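cache lookup: miss for this entity combination. No prior model stored, computing from scratch. Input as submitted by user K.M.:
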Amino acid sequence: MSVRVRFAPSPTGFLHIGGARTALFNWLYARHTGGKFILRIEDTDAARNSQEAVEVILSGLRWLGLDWDEGPITGDATGPGKGDHGPYFQSQRKANYQQRVEALLSHGLAYEHEGAIKFKMTRDPITIPDLVVGDVVRPLTDREVQDPDFVIVRSDGQPVFHLVNVIDDLEMGITHVIRGEDHLSNTAKHIALFRAFGVPAPKYAHIPLILNQDGSKMSKRDRGASLATYTDEGFLPEAVNNYLCLLGWSPKDNIEKLSLPEVVKRFDLPQILRHNAKFDFEKLTWLQGEYCRDLPADRFYELAVHALAKAGQDTNALPVASVKAALDTCRGKIKTFADLPAYAGFYFRDEIICDAEAAKKSFVSENKPRVEKLRDAFSKLVTFDAASIEAELKTTATELGVKVGVLIHPTRLAVTGHPNGPSLYHLLEVIGKEKTLARIEKALCQFR
Ligand code: GLU
């Protein structure tokens, strides 16, 4: 039997990191087994859903590269790779639900109650054979003991989550339901509904929740809870995917940096961890740094230029070779692309505003003649490359009887506006002699 899994988000306007991980685990399982990954938007609650909320989910999945395999043909490119398949929308499947409800009613498995339709729930306990958690028998709550039946269609005609979720899993031939552990409490109801429809329930794998470091539940407001944090803050999808893989799954040899194709090879449900996963922003940032360092040059340039443009910094004024040379000085230095405009912005704008704190320390009167001497030495350089700049700065420092740092700090501040940044000699080479001298000249007026 070939595997068919699904991600079934309700469009709420944001994609929770836990939802993204659920999507990823389903996708990984489908790719690992050669099965199908289905995307189904659970949008029956018309009051809460909007096209924008759906778009948040679709663009999040596209950003992560989690392509879905089937769905109604939409005619436009909504799925990465398999462009012509949209996701399934529950709002478009009302007739299916109606038919199924009629079948339950006609078999005496559901009944009308105060305008609503209730499902006749089994009175026997149901065991959930879960692939992660093991066998789970959930005792009925007091209310359920009194009346285990539950509403499947509200009095306003709206079918409820349990019903549509099960009908869709059934009709879409879902073999494995991989979802957050918060749904474990719904699963007995779902299994009972499958039985009522006369089909065996899919296999279940409830994955542990993602908690904050202090063990509290990750809410919408917690840093890192929304996928938008990563798309907005210039993270790389490969780093986020890698990190999400480690949230509740672990390769046997405990390697932490794994590419997605590598995880596809290794991923399997029995390795999903039973205990809750703690969200660790620092580890994610570490992975991000690793992936950033390893980026092929072209992709680094592309993402860097995009991040700069987003921050309003135009790279078009400079020749491509200079832009590349400038960005090369930043490789391995920044963690996320969102750091780039502050780190490298001085290359792309003419006006340099010097950090006030640093200026207090570096732009002091005894440094002024030293920087003037360095300016004169630089102005005589015929070849203005990193090696010559370095040699000249060192010679000047020796002649002045000061450490190189005494010249490096004010010069860096004058040219970049910041107390730290890329290698000074390399950045000066990129900026060029003329601009370097002009910026030093301008800064000399600010010495006190
Ligand atoms: N729409 C449900 C949710 O977003 C889906 C639950 C499931 O995966 O079955 O939580």
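stored under new cache key. Residues 72 and 432 are 57 Å apart (CA to CA).
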